[in-house]
Amino acid sequence: MPRPVRDVVFVDGVRTPFGKAGGMYANTRADDLVIRCIRELLRRNPQLPPERVDEVAIAATTQIGDQGLTIGRTAALLSGLPKTVPGYSIDRMCAGALTAVTSVAGGIAFGAYDVAIAGGVEHMGRHPMGEGVDPNPRILAEKLVDPSALVMGSTAENLHDRLPAITKERADKFGYASQVKTAAAYQAGKLQPDLVSVATRDPEAGWGLATVDEAPRETSLEKLGTLKTPFRPHGKVTAGNAAGLNDGATAAILAAEDVALELGLPIGMRLVSYGFVGVEPEVMGYGPVPATEKALRQAGLTIADIGLFELNEAFAVQVLAFLDHFGIADDDPRVNPWGGAIAVGHPLASSGVRLMTQLSRQFAEHPEVRYGLTAMCVGIGMGASVIWENPNWKGDK
Amino acid sequence: MSAAISNPNEVVTRALLRFVTLPSRERAALITLDNGFDHTKPNSFGPAGLASLEAAIDEAVAAAPKFIALTGKPYIFCVGADITGMPLLTEREQALELGRYGHRVFKKFKDSTVPTFAFINGAAMGGGLEVALHCHYRTVSSGAAALALPEVAIGLVPGWGGTQLLPNLIGIAPAAQVILQNPLTQKTLKPAQARELGIADEIFEPADYLERSLAWAEGVVDGTVTVIRPEIDRDMWDGVLFFARHQLDERLHGAVNSANKALDLLALAKSSTFENGTAAEDEALADLIMGDQARASLYAFDLVQRRAKRPAGAPDKGLARDVTKVGIVGAGLMASQLALLFVRRLEVPVVLTDLDQARVDKGVGYVHAEIDKLVSKKRLDPGKAAKLRGLVSGSADKAAFADADLVLEAVFEDLGVKKQVWAEVEKIVRDDCVLATNTSSLSVSEQAAGLAHPERVVGLHFFNPVAMMPLLEIVRADRTDDATLATAFAVGKALKKSSVLVADRPAFVVNRLLTRFLGVVTAAVDNGTPIAVADSALDTLGLPMRPMALLTMVGPAVAHHVAETLHTAFPDRFGVSANLGRVVEAGKRGFTDAEGSPDPEVLALLQVGDSPSTADELRDEATAALAREIRLMLDEGVVADARDIDLCMILGAGWPMHLGGVTPYLDREGISEKVTGARFLPPGVANAP
């Protein structure tokens, strides 16, 4: 049966302010964070009848406790979506929410869904990295991968080894720039519109309200140079040139373009292509390079066609590896113009949608840009890259 | 805070002040009430808690934030004044200070130059709702369990501003309903009702209640949200209160001081200044706190809320055996009602047996029909209903009891019949299957005598209607073992009944006392006292039902049967009324008709003497009889102590909470001392110091 492939659009996205593990969300449940996002999406888009949501895909890396129990389904129910709306959980570590988006997008293009919600959550305070993992002993016995592949910071050090042109100074400088750009974006009110306030309870202090990210800090290049390198003595990776351990959630509405138009939903971005690849797990940070090449190839585009980049800053070194590969300057204004994960944080499985939400906002400000890209590296050696088209683009003029 | 009213045992609800940054980057003050425990121990206001709230509001106002909001811990806003501290107040001056202190602190929310909001996130009762009423605006969570001003029910008035603020916020008629009618009928408001009445200005869902409330509050302050309040109609004020007073007199015969005071305060709220109104509240509250009714109410409240949850004399819970299947002997109305109760609460197979299939089918049909009714009233969801229907079955063959863990009999009240039932059942069931009798007056020990395993026989005396009445008298027979008794208590708890352990003495507690009391009344009728005089002689006690109505509800046949049992046991005190026998024989529903007037056909049947009593004589005789009987029961060890008598009479006979049950009334009126030589309760336990 022949059938047309439908265009998929990113309608709207929100996120909670990101907290520091053990910080403002210490007494807040992970599922409540993502529920807050889903409810805010529905509140902001009253044109969308809740029963028209065909799927809720929520990513979490550690799917136990308050991130378990098929969180996509339970979060849908607890958000007040009709019981007829299904949901599921999804995991591709750091690219969880990104994969939730591409998965439901595939379903929309295929015609299985008209509208879907995709998002992610990671409460790294409640679920530290590696909680409950049980690596197969063959990994060591058969030397399938280097043991350092399971420690993300070590893979970043490995990447520095292989790309000696990326010095610690460049990494620190990039980290510092992320803080500066984030502070400027906050000052200009760029980030706040898509932040969902979260009531946070502290049994000793009473209820509070999270309205801004907890991780960004004022710092200086000099200070960054003095930080410890926890993954290797005399190494290069520090808390200043890497994302921290964070708590947060994101969610976005995806829809078939014709359905979005029918319902009067805003169109933030149009999906062009996406690519996932595997790389050597010891240098997982390199993943976005081949992933982006794959996505560009599929779309028939070159890197020169991309006018805006939202690259996840798990580590400065992996972003710099990407920029060097494609011949882009460290301080290219098209890259992470509002800063990135080094400043705001990286609650693993939630981050992909943050990149997309920000890119769609930047598209609105840049009608001269036709294509943008969201990309991230993924643990155990993967890369993920999604290319988007700006609906505000009015042709080459 | 005033040291004069401090309570060393207060569980302090702290007012935690935090300044929060709103999405607009402006600053608001958020005060959280939290006593440090989970929702099973709700927030309340004692003197130290009020001091904490005062410090928080003072600091908040001084910081000049955009607005100040007050909210609670999860599920609980605040359930009002800490009543556990009230028995400590021994001087009127202390009682006055308690009222004044609350007013002083709450008023700061009303007089604040910074806009104040209450975010009623959970249960809000009494003083909890009153502090919210002092705030300039209120939101409520649709998940809040209940909102209420229940003070009148425990002998007090909403004396921290409730009587003055509420009628001026929502109007006198709804206010009278919330302050008077709801407490006296044990009703509370759901959040949607509170919103509809105008108690809350806005309602939000629990999932993002606080976030939405904060955003709404900011909108109110910015003027982007308009709050619409109802217009208060002052012309109807006096009329509404006249009508309310009339209704109360009819129901309670003017016996409840708190209700009368509340009416006076509501009248004052029409045109008084807030200062005069709250001063009057202080005086009223002090009068009530220093009066007997409030103390008796607090005593009764403690019995129902605490003592009933930890029954005196119950064995170790760990001894209880699991009950995974229940057999019920009999499929008549009582048996079917019991089957419905057991299947709803225990959700285990329940099998009814009777002499033939037709009766069994009728019993099962009744249960199924009742389940359907619950579904149509939306009190049961269809899935659960399907489960319950599948669990109820019937059989004409008692072999269906073979794997039951508990068999309850609800057959005719005749010792011979019951003994025959047990002999038959014991051949079928396991040796440790609990055999429970729902007898209202027959000896449980005699029922067990002759069985191979008498240690598993126990009495479970339910009250009619079994779905509604909260009391379960658990009867320990001579040889009942602890495991059986523990199982009985566990079942009682699962059935959501309040269980009281009683000895195997004739008619146990409630029926013995009601029969004694009704016996005096019927004897007076036999002697020629007009029915109307006999029926109203006890009005001053404020009982929920006059004797003749009670007789009709119990049923003349049952009342007559119990009277005969007690007459056999105690012939000197319990008579058998020939006239009651005639009523039973004629198949009448009582001495009076449906409207409560003497039934002419019954009057024609009666043969009465010519020595009528006056109302006063009759009241004195009836209360003296009660005092004497209670003393005998305590001497016989029917219950652990007088508090259990009161618990039984409150929960099983609807004796008013404001009387504290029966013994505080008898003590207070001097009847116990006069008739039995001593009080039942030490002074101060259930009366004013």
Automatic annotation (TrEMBL), chain A:
GO terms for cellular component: cytoplasm. Its EC number is 2.3.1.16. Residues 8-258 form the Thiolase N-terminal domain. Keywords: Acyltransferase, Transferase. Residues 269-389 form the Thiolase C-terminal domain. GO terms for biological process: fatty acid beta-oxidation; phenylacetate catabolic process. Belongs to the thiolase-like superfamily. Thiolase family. This is acetyl-CoA C-acyltransferase. The lineage of its organism: Bacteria, Bacillati, Actinomycetota, Actinomycetes, Micromonosporales.
From TrEMBL, chain B:
Residues 325-504 form the 3-hydroxyacyl-CoA dehydrogenase NAD binding domain. One of its GO terms (molecular function) is enoyl-CoA hydratase activity. Residues 508-591 form the 3-hydroxyacyl-CoA dehydrogenase C-terminal domain. Pathway: Lipid metabolism; butanoate metabolism; Lipid metabolism; fatty acid beta-oxidation. SUPFAM superfamilies: 6-phosphogluconate dehydrogenase C-terminal domain-like, ClpP/crotonase, NAD(P)-binding Rossmann-fold domains. It catalyses: a (3S)-3-hydroxyacyl-CoA + NAD(+) = a 3-oxoacyl-CoA + NADH + H(+). One of its GO terms (biological process) is fatty acid beta-oxidation. The keyword NADP does not apply. InterPro entries: 3-OHacyl-CoA_DH_NAD-bd, 3HC_DH_C, 6-PGluconate_DH-like_C_sf, ClpP/crotonase-like_dom_sf, Enoyl-CoA_hydra/iso, FA_oxidation_alpha_subunit, NAD(P)-bd_dom_sf. Keywords: Fatty acid metabolism, Lipid degradation, Lipid metabolism, Lyase, Multifunctional enzyme, NAD, Oxidoreductase. It comes from the Bacteria. In the central section; belongs to the 3-hydroxyacyl-CoA dehydrogenase family. This is 3-hydroxyacyl-CoA dehydrogenase. It comes from Dactylosporangium siamense. The lineage of its organism: Bacteria, Bacillati, Actinomycetota, Actinomycetes, Micromonosporales.
